[in-house]
Design a protein that fits this description.
The protein is about 10% helix and about 30% strand. The chain contains 4 helices and 15 strands. A hairpin with a 4-residue loop joins strand 4 and strand 5 (about 60-65). The radius of gyration is 17 Å and the shape is globular.
Length: about 260
């Protein structure tokens, strides 16, 4: 099965997922100079009535799922032609003292990257259908840099003790990811893919320019998670679960104001 190790990591994913060598793969490096598109409006995150359900360890990351049976929490505006429903959010991070973001900015990595995953329920009847369509998903990427404690992240890191092993899940109600947003919603946007297998080229990426600060202590709690299940004998700390930047292949990256 795919993973982030020497034998099953990003460099060999193309063997089972040939789209890994495709023309709109993610993540990418964001160059210093990006074309500014004045026609790009602000991104709007309507999360006031969002309903978080649970938090789980899927063997690749820690994921918080939301009730997406109606339009109670959606993102719209910016490059999007429809509203997209919030389905889940998850993180990618590095090892102790090492950066672990997926996208990079002028060659620089951040400590971690948060992905807020949304799907186009106007055009597609399920997340899985949307995930296979070129305009099916919209993922908001937020960079995490080490600094002060993040005031609200402890609710997530405290719950991680309950989902240490792959396949574990526990209730996680009443969490609104709006508390994880940086002060500015200025963004870069481009057409890309899922950054893990199946690597579907179905994502409109919206990367917020400003990072949020989290403490090294809080990040350390992410690394208490395990890639492996409780019953597996070889223990493996969940860290460095990021794909490196992929070729741009002529794609245009646009910047909001
Ligand atoms: N990193 S991402 O581009 O935001 C991203 C957003 C939504 C996704 O669904 C995936 N990938 C995924 O679900 N892969 C199935 C195996 C995991 C559970 O075993 C990646
Ligand atoms: Zn992700």
């Amino acid at each position: 099965h795919w993973g982030y190790g020497q034998e099953n990591g990003p460099d060999v994913w193309h063997k089972n997922y040939p789209v890994a060598l495709g023309s709109r793969q993610s993540p990418i490096d964001i160059p210093r100079q990006v074309s500014h598109d004045p026609s790009l409006g602000p991104i709007v995150l309507d999360y006031d009535h969002c309903t978080s359900i649970n938090i789980s360890n899927n063997g690749h990351s820690v994921v918080v799922y939301f009730d997406d049976t109606d339009d109670r929490s959606v993102i719209h505006g910016g490059p999007l032609e429809n509203p997209y429903r919030l389905k889940q959010f998850h993180f990618h991070w590095g090892g102790k003292g090492c950066d672990g973001s997926e996208h990079t900015v002028a060659g620089n990595s951040y400590a971690s990257e948060l992905h807020l995953v949304h799907w186009n329920a106007v055009k597609y009847k399920s997340f899985d259908h949307a995930a296979a369509a070129p305009d099916g998903l919209a993922v908001v990427g937020i960079f995490l840099e080490t600094g002060d404690d993040h005031r609200w992240l402890h609710t997530i890191t405290d719950a991680m003790y309950m989902v240490k092993y792959k396949g574990s899940v526990t209730d996680f109600k009443g969490f609104n990811p709006k508390c994880l947003l940086p002060s500015s919603l200025h963004y870069w946007t481009y057409l890309g893919s899922l950054t893990t297998p199946p690597l579907h080229e179905s994502v409109t990426w919206i990367l917020l320019k400003d990072p949020i600060a989290v403490s090294e202590k809080q990040l350390g709690k992410f690394r208490l998670l395990q890639f492996t299940g409780e019953e597996e004998d070889q223990r493996s700390r969940m860290e460095n679960n990021f794909r490196p930047p992929q070729p741009l292949k002529g794609r245009r990256i646009r910047s909001s104001n």
